[in-house]
Amino acid sequence: MKFLEKYLHKMEPHFIKGGKYEKWNPLFETLATFAFTPKLVTTKGTHIRDGVDLKRTMFTVVIALIPCLLFGIYNTGHWEYAVAEGNRDIPYFAEMGAKFLTGLTIVLPVVIVSYGVGLTIEFIFGMLRGHSLHEGFLVSGMLIPLTMPADVPLWMVAIATAFAVIIGKEIFGGTGMNVVNIALTARAFLFFAYPTSMSGDKVWMSGLGDKMSTNSADLDGFSGATALGDLASFMSDKATVAGETVQSSMALQNFSTEYGVWESFVGMIPGSIGETSTLACLIGGLLLVLTGVGSLRIILSFFAGGFVMGLLLNAIGGNPYLDLAAHHHLVIGGFAFGAVFMATDPVTASQTAFGKIIYGFLGGLLAIMIRVLNPAYPEGVFLAILFMNIMAPIIDHYIIQANINRRLKRLKTA
Amino acid sequence: MSNTISIRKGLNIRLVGEAKKEIKDIPVSKTVGVSPLDFHGLTPKLVVKEGDNVQIGDVLFFDKKEASVKFISPVSGTIESIVRGEKRRILNVLIATDGKQTAKKFDVSKASSFNSEETKALLLATGFWSSIKQRPLDVIANPNNEAKAMFVSSFDSAPLAPDYEYILGDDIGNLQKGFDALSTLTGGKVHLSSRPNSIFSKINGVKHHTFDGVHPAGNVGTQMHHIDPVNKGEFVWSINIQEVAAIGRLINEGTVSSSRKIALTGSELKNPTYVNVSKGTEMSTILDKGIVGSNVRYISGNVLTGDQKNLTDFIGYYHNQITVIPEGNEYKFFLTSGWLGHGFDKFSNSRLFPTFLLPKSKKFTLDTNTNGEERAFVVSGELERVFPFDILPVQLTKAAITQDIDGMENLGIYEVAPEDFALCEYVCTTKINIQDKIRQGLDLIASECM
Description:
The structure holds two protein chains of two kinds. By secondary structure, chain A is mainly alpha-helical. Chain A has a domain at 2-35. Chain A has 19 helices and three strands. In chain A, strands 2-3 form a two-stranded antiparallel sheet. In chain A, helix 3 (54-85) runs antiparallel to helix 13 (278-291), helix 4 (96-129) packs antiparallel against helix 5 (136-146) and helix 6 (154-169) packs across helix 7. By secondary structure, chain B is an alpha/beta fold. Chain B has four domains: 4-10 and 107-253, Rossmann fold; 29-97, CATH 2.40.50.100; 259-357, Ubiquitin-like (UB roll), CATH 3.10.20; 383-449, no CATH class. Chain B contains ten helices and 21 strands. Chain B has a seven-stranded mixed beta sheet, sandwiched between helices. Chain B has a six-stranded mixed beta sheet with strand order 2-17-16-20-18-19. Strand 1 of chain A pairs antiparallel with strand 21 of chain B, so a sheet runs across the interface.
């Protein structure tokens, strides 16, 4: 490594102020500080510093996302196979290697586009502002692909990422300054700008859209719907489950057969690339909580909020949609993914300890409320989190005000 | 005796290089320096000029804004030079010592019956007033204000800090005299906070408190907050316990003693130990060839709040400790000792490093590398874990950064000193110089609100 270090030393004068490639300093600095923790020393204040830095923190989140990514790749491959066979019920754990490779060919380009576009924009802003890459996008760049439907066109991923990075983050000042979660901004952008590509029955399985338009005869009785899509259809009198029209009273039972709690928990259902497996999310969540990067308060209260709302709706009851068991809500529709990876984003979540509990609880509550009571937006989780991102400063405001009032009260009683 | 207050939010940074309990006498260095920069916000007005002869206790300069606050010579000798910086700012008053250590006599015959004003006058005349700090602002106390209470901490919980029970163990008599004098100074109580089962519980005439737990339990700011917090418009004073003993010695003997016992600590010292030195002694005289490496940082004070010094500089006025640690001015390859390394060599309060798995007895050699670059605040809940105040540290720091005076007032700026934020600064993932931000906030408050 001495060789690399020497080389960097040799190159450094070209990139500092007055050097040949002064303009490219952010790029050089990013690469150099990636390979070597720089030789910066403390100048004022404490003479020693904790080992932790933002690179390690963000890298840990990327590691935590790997179970979701791997499972997502496999799951995408599986549903591609299901489409090819025209049968939703092909065995899940068969031909695993082939499925994984197929999934890889679909998911990898999305990941590459997301990182490629996002990092390019971040570098441009870094060069404009004269600073190296700030690490926030390392995480956003992985989250964005995982929230996309498998069949999403790559150009959409590109503009969604560009929109999220520029409008969601850089105009506010970059990493640490954004108001709403970057990855969810990207998803929301696509959801409202290209609704046909982000919702409905055709987008969740790779290749399904093409096949339906060319060779629909093969797909008689085949549904590309997700759990949420089918759930939404319960609201109509004649519900469809897996493409078959059934009586409303039968719907819930059929739904539970099609999307069993266990299957949903493991993630063997169609959905966005990385969100289907509650199990994978929880493994990642465990890493985040153990390392202290993710807030246990937010994760738990988010689940609690969703569960409480589920129970409330069960209590009202009356149609199968309201009757779906509360715990079942927590394992479908990216609820766990939102709780573990989106709601816990420290920049956009509440920053006070008690605020985090309120923020998480209301987030979970709203997610299920939107999902059930407004079937136009069954993907309630991301809308709820975006809404709570905006509300988080207000929650914090009241917590801070309570702290201020305690101090004022002390002054009065003194 | 009151109940034990246990401080759970905090961090003991376990460093190599604790001082052995032996005392070595260090002779007075040939040159001794008194720096006005040791006193934050002070504008000094000189009373001596080069060539003047001084004794211990002779005034060197006083505070231009509050002329009664005087700063004295810790040694006898001749004024060698006045070192000035930009805009003729006085950086140091250098005194060539004569080795005799003759001291000016003060009349203390009636000291035991002094009232508040007389005690104040004695402390001002003998230069001890500069040891009394006030909150708000963390500057030398303004003698014209009435303090609601006085706080003394009998232990220092900072990394490698000196053990005052060891230093003052045979000085209880002087200490008692000192506390007697301090108790006349304010209308309020004198609060003395100690570890459980402290030898200082014998002291009479003070209100005893017991503090247990992790650093910053020994910081006087922490103790104030848990005993009797400062509100807007109030003043509290604090003084280091070794200075209290020195005040007692003044009252017993009639002369100012500038000799202090300090701890020499840090991983780069061959022989970390306690030493007996005069205030203002040159660093090189104290450390005299006892350093292991060459690429080291000399710190007057502890690693969290001390000042960086050269060997030709002098020990800081408020410091009872010198720490020498390695400099960290080298690249660290990311997989071995850099940001993605195994991290067994790093001490972290975050569970991203394996520190929390290692036994509590494991001690660390830490260097001055920042271990990362500065970023905007990202992580939340991190500073709160080491900040045992009912104050929101991130929000207060942000108010200080944005110069939001109302915000700072509301969020508790009057209670805090930069040193209270030292641990926050240490653990901060985004490497923000929090103590400096708080100091700038306090300066703004001083100029706008006081």
